User: Fold this.
Amino acid sequence: MNDKKILFSGVQPTGDLHLGNYLGAFQNWVNLQDKYNCIYSVVDLHAITINYDPEKYQERVLKTVIDLLAMGIDPQKSILFVQSQVPEHTELCWLLNTITPVSELQRMTQFKDKSKQNIANVNMGLFDYPVLQVADILLYKSEFVPVGADQVQHLELTNDILKKFNNKFGEYFSKVETIISKGERIMSLADPSKKMSKSLGENHCLSLRDDPDTIRKKIMSAITDQGPTENGEMSAGVDNLFKMMELLGDEEIVKKFHQDYHQQTLKYSELKIALVEVLINFLKPIQEKILELENNSDEVVKILEQGTEKARAIARVNIREIKEKMGLV
Ligand code: TYM
Assistant:
Protein backbone atom coordinates (compact mmCIF):
# COMPACT_ATOMS: atom_id res chain seq x y z
CA MET A 1 0.00 0.00 0.00
CA ASN A 2 1.09 3.59 -0.69
CA ASP A 3 0.52 6.54 1.65
CA LYS A 4 -2.68 7.73 -0.01
CA LYS A 5 -5.74 7.92 2.24
CA ILE A 6 -8.54 5.42 1.95
CA LEU A 7 -11.83 6.27 0.27
CA PHE A 8 -14.85 3.96 0.39
CA SER A 9 -18.26 4.04 -1.21
CA GLY A 10 -21.06 1.65 -2.08
CA VAL A 11 -24.07 1.21 -4.32
CA GLN A 12 -27.08 -1.08 -3.97
CA PRO A 13 -27.87 -3.45 -6.84
CA THR A 14 -31.53 -2.44 -6.84
CA GLY A 15 -31.98 -1.65 -10.53
CA ASP A 16 -30.34 -0.02 -13.52
CA LEU A 17 -28.07 2.78 -12.37
CA HIS A 18 -29.34 6.23 -13.28
CA LEU A 19 -28.03 9.68 -13.96
CA GLY A 20 -28.69 10.73 -10.34
CA ASN A 21 -26.32 7.99 -9.14
CA TYR A 22 -23.74 9.06 -11.68
CA LEU A 23 -23.80 12.81 -11.07
CA GLY A 24 -24.28 12.46 -7.32
CA ALA A 25 -21.62 9.86 -6.69
CA PHE A 26 -19.99 7.90 -9.52
CA GLN A 27 -18.52 10.90 -11.30
CA ASN A 28 -16.53 11.46 -8.11
CA TRP A 29 -15.79 7.74 -7.76
CA VAL A 30 -14.16 7.76 -11.18
CA ASN A 31 -12.35 11.09 -10.80
CA LEU A 32 -10.88 10.36 -7.37
CA GLN A 33 -9.23 7.08 -8.31
CA ASP A 34 -5.74 8.62 -8.59
CA LYS A 35 -5.98 10.74 -5.46
CA TYR A 36 -7.02 8.04 -2.96
CA ASN A 37 -6.84 4.30 -2.40
CA CYS A 38 -10.41 3.73 -3.52
CA ILE A 39 -12.54 0.80 -2.41
CA TYR A 40 -15.92 0.40 -4.10
CA SER A 41 -18.55 -2.14 -3.18
CA VAL A 42 -21.82 -3.40 -4.61
CA VAL A 43 -23.68 -3.64 -1.32
CA ASP A 44 -25.91 -6.66 -1.91
CA LEU A 45 -26.62 -7.17 1.82
CA HIS A 46 -28.14 -3.71 2.05
CA ALA A 47 -30.45 -4.26 -0.89
CA ILE A 48 -32.08 -7.42 0.53
CA THR A 49 -33.67 -5.33 3.29
CA ILE A 50 -36.45 -4.53 0.81
CA ASN A 51 -38.37 -6.96 -1.40
CA TYR A 52 -36.22 -8.55 -4.11
CA ASP A 53 -36.21 -11.54 -6.44
CA PRO A 54 -33.60 -14.13 -5.30
CA GLU A 55 -33.75 -15.89 -8.68
CA LYS A 56 -32.63 -12.78 -10.50
CA TYR A 57 -30.38 -11.35 -7.80
CA GLN A 58 -27.00 -12.57 -9.09
CA GLU A 59 -27.85 -11.16 -12.51
CA ARG A 60 -28.70 -7.79 -10.90
CA VAL A 61 -25.44 -7.72 -8.95
CA LEU A 62 -23.39 -8.54 -12.04
CA LYS A 63 -25.21 -5.87 -14.06
CA THR A 64 -24.34 -3.26 -11.44
CA VAL A 65 -20.68 -4.32 -11.48
CA ILE A 66 -20.63 -4.10 -15.28
CA ASP A 67 -22.17 -0.61 -15.21
CA LEU A 68 -19.50 0.56 -12.75
CA LEU A 69 -16.66 -0.85 -14.86
CA ALA A 70 -18.15 0.66 -18.02
CA MET A 71 -18.40 4.03 -16.33
CA GLY A 72 -14.69 4.07 -15.62
CA ILE A 73 -13.99 2.24 -12.36
CA ASP A 74 -10.55 0.86 -13.09
CA PRO A 75 -9.69 -2.41 -11.28
CA GLN A 76 -5.99 -1.64 -11.76
CA LYS A 77 -6.41 1.42 -9.56
CA SER A 78 -9.36 0.63 -7.29
CA ILE A 79 -10.70 -2.33 -5.38
CA LEU A 80 -14.13 -3.40 -6.64
CA PHE A 81 -16.01 -6.19 -4.86
CA VAL A 82 -19.39 -7.48 -3.72
CA GLN A 83 -20.12 -6.83 -0.04
CA SER A 84 -21.43 -10.29 0.94
CA GLN A 85 -18.15 -11.87 -0.23
CA VAL A 86 -16.34 -10.19 2.67
CA PRO A 87 -18.01 -11.54 5.84
CA GLU A 88 -16.15 -9.06 8.07
CA HIS A 89 -18.75 -6.42 7.06
CA THR A 90 -21.52 -8.20 8.98
CA GLU A 91 -19.15 -9.08 11.80
CA LEU A 92 -18.21 -5.44 12.31
CA CYS A 93 -21.86 -4.45 11.98
CA TRP A 94 -22.67 -6.64 14.99
CA LEU A 95 -19.80 -5.21 17.02
CA LEU A 96 -20.90 -1.66 16.23
CA ASN A 97 -24.53 -2.53 17.04
CA THR A 98 -23.45 -2.87 20.65
CA ILE A 99 -22.48 0.81 20.85
CA THR A 100 -25.24 2.27 18.66
CA PRO A 101 -28.20 3.81 20.51
CA VAL A 102 -31.56 2.64 19.15
CA SER A 103 -32.76 6.25 19.40
CA GLU A 104 -30.15 7.31 16.78
CA LEU A 105 -31.48 4.73 14.31
CA GLN A 106 -35.07 5.78 14.93
CA ARG A 107 -34.17 9.27 13.69
CA MET A 108 -32.86 8.11 10.29
CA THR A 109 -34.98 9.64 7.52
CA GLN A 110 -34.13 6.91 5.01
CA PHE A 111 -35.46 4.31 7.45
CA LYS A 112 -38.66 6.31 7.92
CA ASP A 113 -39.12 6.75 4.14
CA LYS A 114 -38.41 3.12 3.31
CA SER A 115 -40.68 1.90 6.13
CA LYS A 116 -43.53 3.88 4.58
CA GLN A 117 -42.79 2.44 1.13
CA ASN A 118 -42.55 -1.15 2.45
CA ILE A 119 -45.21 -1.25 5.17
CA ALA A 120 -45.59 -5.03 4.91
CA ASN A 121 -41.86 -5.64 5.36
CA VAL A 122 -40.35 -3.33 7.97
CA ASN A 123 -37.65 -5.77 9.08
CA MET A 124 -34.73 -5.57 11.52
CA GLY A 125 -32.29 -5.40 8.60
CA LEU A 126 -33.92 -2.23 7.34
CA PHE A 127 -33.63 -0.72 10.82
CA ASP A 128 -29.99 -1.77 11.15
CA TYR A 129 -29.13 -0.73 7.59
CA PRO A 130 -27.22 2.42 8.66
CA VAL A 131 -24.99 0.44 11.05
CA LEU A 132 -24.02 -1.95 8.25
CA GLN A 133 -23.17 1.14 6.19
CA VAL A 134 -21.01 2.46 9.05
CA ALA A 135 -19.31 -0.95 9.19
CA ASP A 136 -18.63 -0.83 5.41
CA ILE A 137 -16.81 2.45 5.85
CA LEU A 138 -14.93 1.76 9.08
CA LEU A 139 -13.85 -1.77 8.19
CA TYR A 140 -11.25 -0.24 5.88
CA LYS A 141 -10.49 2.71 8.19
CA SER A 142 -11.74 4.94 5.37
CA GLU A 143 -11.41 8.68 5.75
CA PHE A 144 -13.33 9.83 2.66
CA VAL A 145 -16.75 8.83 1.35
CA PRO A 146 -18.21 10.28 -1.87
CA VAL A 147 -22.04 10.13 -1.84
CA GLY A 148 -25.15 12.06 -2.84
CA ALA A 149 -27.02 14.32 -0.40
CA ASP A 150 -29.43 11.55 0.67
CA GLN A 151 -26.57 9.74 2.43
CA VAL A 152 -25.29 12.65 4.54
CA GLN A 153 -27.26 11.60 7.64
CA HIS A 154 -25.71 8.12 7.49
CA LEU A 155 -22.27 9.71 7.32
CA GLU A 156 -23.04 11.84 10.37
CA LEU A 157 -24.00 8.65 12.17
CA THR A 158 -20.65 7.15 11.09
CA ASN A 159 -18.78 9.95 12.82
CA ASP A 160 -20.96 9.66 15.94
CA ILE A 161 -20.36 5.91 16.20
CA LEU A 162 -16.62 6.10 15.57
CA LYS A 163 -16.33 8.77 18.27
CA LYS A 164 -18.16 6.49 20.69
CA PHE A 165 -15.84 3.62 19.74
CA ASN A 166 -12.70 5.73 20.22
CA ASN A 167 -13.93 7.03 23.60
CA LYS A 168 -14.83 3.60 24.87
CA PHE A 169 -12.02 1.45 23.49
CA GLY A 170 -9.19 3.90 22.72
CA GLU A 171 -8.34 5.97 19.60
CA TYR A 172 -8.58 3.85 16.49
CA PHE A 173 -10.72 5.42 13.75
CA SER A 174 -10.09 8.81 12.12
CA LYS A 175 -12.92 11.21 11.34
CA VAL A 176 -14.71 10.47 8.08
CA GLU A 177 -15.16 13.23 5.53
CA THR A 178 -18.16 13.23 3.20
CA ILE A 179 -17.38 14.23 -0.38
CA ILE A 180 -20.40 15.84 -2.00
CA SER A 181 -20.55 16.83 -5.66
CA LYS A 182 -22.44 19.59 -7.43
CA GLY A 183 -24.89 16.91 -8.57
CA GLU A 184 -25.60 15.89 -4.97
CA ARG A 185 -29.36 15.83 -5.56
CA ILE A 186 -30.58 15.19 -9.09
CA MET A 187 -34.36 15.39 -9.23
CA SER A 188 -36.94 13.19 -10.95
CA LEU A 189 -37.71 14.13 -14.56
CA ALA A 190 -41.43 13.54 -14.10
CA ASP A 191 -41.76 15.11 -10.64
CA PRO A 192 -38.88 17.48 -9.85
CA SER A 193 -40.05 17.91 -6.26
CA LYS A 194 -38.68 14.41 -5.57
CA LYS A 195 -35.14 13.09 -6.02
CA MET A 196 -34.48 10.85 -9.01
CA SER A 197 -34.91 7.32 -7.69
CA LYS A 198 -35.38 3.82 -9.03
CA SER A 199 -38.32 3.31 -6.72
CA LEU A 200 -40.39 6.10 -8.31
CA GLY A 201 -40.62 4.36 -11.68
CA GLU A 202 -39.08 4.33 -15.16
CA ASN A 203 -40.27 7.73 -16.38
CA HIS A 204 -38.73 9.47 -13.36
CA CYS A 205 -35.18 8.25 -14.06
CA LEU A 206 -32.73 8.45 -16.87
CA SER A 207 -31.03 5.07 -16.85
CA LEU A 208 -27.42 4.83 -17.97
CA ARG A 209 -28.63 2.02 -20.26
CA ASP A 210 -31.41 4.04 -21.96
CA ASP A 211 -31.16 4.11 -25.76
CA PRO A 212 -31.16 7.43 -27.69
CA ASP A 213 -34.92 7.32 -28.42
CA THR A 214 -35.77 6.75 -24.76
CA ILE A 215 -33.40 9.53 -23.69
CA ARG A 216 -35.06 11.89 -26.17
CA LYS A 217 -38.56 10.93 -25.03
CA LYS A 218 -37.77 11.29 -21.32
CA ILE A 219 -35.90 14.59 -21.56
CA MET A 220 -38.35 16.22 -24.00
CA SER A 221 -41.23 15.38 -21.67
CA ALA A 222 -39.38 16.37 -18.47
CA ILE A 223 -41.41 18.78 -16.34
CA THR A 224 -40.24 22.41 -16.72
CA ASP A 225 -43.38 24.49 -17.02
CA GLN A 226 -43.86 25.55 -13.44
CA GLY A 227 -42.40 29.02 -14.17
CA PRO A 228 -40.06 30.84 -11.76
CA THR A 229 -40.71 30.19 -8.08
CA GLU A 230 -42.19 32.86 -5.79
CA ASN A 231 -38.80 34.30 -4.90
CA GLY A 232 -37.80 34.48 -8.57
CA GLU A 233 -35.56 31.42 -8.50
CA MET A 234 -35.52 28.86 -11.30
CA SER A 235 -38.23 26.23 -10.96
CA ALA A 236 -36.96 22.86 -9.75
CA GLY A 237 -37.43 21.16 -13.14
CA VAL A 238 -35.48 23.80 -15.08
CA ASP A 239 -32.79 23.95 -12.43
CA ASN A 240 -32.44 20.17 -12.72
CA LEU A 241 -31.91 20.33 -16.50
CA PHE A 242 -29.36 23.12 -16.08
CA LYS A 243 -27.51 21.08 -13.48
CA MET A 244 -27.22 18.07 -15.82
CA MET A 245 -26.07 20.35 -18.60
CA GLU A 246 -23.46 22.01 -16.35
CA LEU A 247 -22.05 18.69 -15.17
CA LEU A 248 -21.83 17.05 -18.58
CA GLY A 249 -22.02 19.76 -21.25
CA ASP A 250 -19.76 22.34 -22.80
CA GLU A 251 -19.15 25.37 -20.58
CA GLU A 252 -19.73 27.94 -23.35
CA ILE A 253 -23.09 26.46 -24.34
CA VAL A 254 -24.21 26.36 -20.71
CA LYS A 255 -23.19 30.01 -20.34
CA LYS A 256 -25.28 30.98 -23.35
CA PHE A 257 -28.36 29.16 -22.00
CA HIS A 258 -27.91 30.93 -18.66
CA GLN A 259 -27.79 34.32 -20.44
CA ASP A 260 -30.94 33.44 -22.39
CA TYR A 261 -32.64 32.43 -19.16
CA HIS A 262 -31.81 35.73 -17.47
CA GLN A 263 -32.92 37.72 -20.51
CA GLN A 264 -36.10 35.64 -20.50
CA THR A 265 -35.49 34.49 -24.08
CA LEU A 266 -34.72 30.87 -23.24
CA LYS A 267 -36.85 28.28 -25.00
CA TYR A 268 -36.97 25.19 -22.81
CA SER A 269 -37.26 23.01 -25.92
CA GLU A 270 -33.84 24.28 -27.10
CA LEU A 271 -32.27 23.56 -23.74
CA LYS A 272 -33.79 20.07 -23.85
CA ILE A 273 -32.63 19.35 -27.40
CA ALA A 274 -29.08 20.37 -26.45
CA LEU A 275 -29.22 18.23 -23.30
CA VAL A 276 -30.44 15.21 -25.27
CA GLU A 277 -27.39 15.52 -27.53
CA VAL A 278 -25.05 15.85 -24.55
CA LEU A 279 -26.56 12.80 -22.86
CA ILE A 280 -26.53 10.60 -25.96
CA ASN A 281 -22.87 11.45 -26.58
CA PHE A 282 -21.97 10.93 -22.95
CA LEU A 283 -23.71 7.55 -22.69
CA LYS A 284 -22.64 6.12 -26.06
CA PRO A 285 -19.12 4.97 -25.03
CA ILE A 286 -20.43 3.70 -21.67
CA GLN A 287 -23.11 1.63 -23.39
CA GLU A 288 -20.58 0.24 -25.87
CA LYS A 289 -18.37 -0.79 -22.98
CA ILE A 290 -21.36 -2.40 -21.22
CA LEU A 291 -22.01 -4.57 -24.30
CA GLU A 292 -18.35 -5.53 -24.47
CA LEU A 293 -18.28 -6.54 -20.79
CA GLU A 294 -21.57 -8.43 -21.03
CA ASN A 295 -20.00 -10.56 -23.73
CA ASN A 296 -17.02 -11.13 -21.51
CA SER A 297 -18.53 -11.95 -18.13
CA ASP A 298 -15.68 -14.33 -17.24
CA GLU A 299 -13.36 -11.35 -17.09
CA VAL A 300 -15.83 -9.48 -14.87
CA VAL A 301 -16.00 -12.43 -12.48
CA LYS A 302 -12.19 -12.51 -12.36
CA ILE A 303 -12.06 -8.79 -11.54
CA LEU A 304 -14.50 -9.41 -8.68
CA GLU A 305 -12.50 -12.34 -7.33
CA GLN A 306 -9.35 -10.24 -7.27
CA GLY A 307 -11.23 -7.35 -5.66
CA THR A 308 -12.65 -9.64 -2.98
CA GLU A 309 -9.20 -10.96 -2.17
CA LYS A 310 -7.73 -7.47 -1.79
CA ALA A 311 -10.66 -6.26 0.30
CA ARG A 312 -10.53 -9.31 2.58
CA ALA A 313 -6.81 -8.91 3.14
CA ILE A 314 -7.42 -5.44 4.61
CA ALA A 315 -10.63 -6.44 6.39
CA ARG A 316 -9.02 -9.39 8.19
CA VAL A 317 -6.23 -7.28 9.66
CA ASN A 318 -8.56 -4.48 10.75
CA ILE A 319 -11.27 -6.66 12.28
CA ARG A 320 -8.64 -8.38 14.40
CA GLU A 321 -7.37 -5.02 15.67
CA ILE A 322 -10.93 -3.88 16.36
CA LYS A 323 -11.72 -7.07 18.26
CA GLU A 324 -8.51 -6.70 20.26
CA LYS A 325 -9.56 -3.17 21.23
CA MET A 326 -12.95 -4.50 22.29
CA GLY A 327 -11.42 -7.23 24.44
CA LEU A 328 -12.48 -10.07 22.18
CA VAL A 329 -9.03 -11.45 21.35
P1 TYM B 1 -27.72 4.02 -3.45
O1 TYM B 1 -27.48 2.67 -4.01
O2 TYM B 1 -29.13 4.44 -3.21
O3 TYM B 1 -27.10 5.12 -4.40
C1 TYM B 1 -25.73 5.11 -4.81
C2 TYM B 1 -25.20 6.53 -4.78
O4 TYM B 1 -25.98 7.39 -5.64
C3 TYM B 1 -26.39 8.55 -4.91
N1 TYM B 1 -27.70 8.98 -5.42
C4 TYM B 1 -27.97 10.21 -5.87
N2 TYM B 1 -27.20 11.32 -5.97
C5 TYM B 1 -27.78 12.43 -6.49
N3 TYM B 1 -29.08 12.49 -6.90
C6 TYM B 1 -29.89 11.40 -6.82
N4 TYM B 1 -31.14 11.46 -7.24
C7 TYM B 1 -29.34 10.20 -6.27
N5 TYM B 1 -29.83 8.95 -6.05
C8 TYM B 1 -28.82 8.22 -5.52
C9 TYM B 1 -26.46 8.09 -3.46
O5 TYM B 1 -26.36 9.19 -2.57
C10 TYM B 1 -25.28 7.15 -3.37
O6 TYM B 1 -24.09 7.87 -3.11
N6 TYM B 1 -26.78 3.54 1.48
C11 TYM B 1 -26.15 3.70 0.17
C12 TYM B 1 -25.22 2.56 -0.19
C13 TYM B 1 -24.11 2.32 0.78
C14 TYM B 1 -22.98 3.14 1.02
C15 TYM B 1 -22.19 2.45 1.99
C16 TYM B 1 -22.57 4.37 0.52
C17 TYM B 1 -23.97 1.22 1.58
N7 TYM B 1 -22.82 1.31 2.28
C18 TYM B 1 -21.00 3.00 2.45
C19 TYM B 1 -21.38 4.91 1.01
C20 TYM B 1 -20.61 4.23 1.96
C21 TYM B 1 -27.24 3.78 -0.88
O7 TYM B 1 -28.36 3.43 -0.64
O8 TYM B 1 -26.84 4.22 -2.13
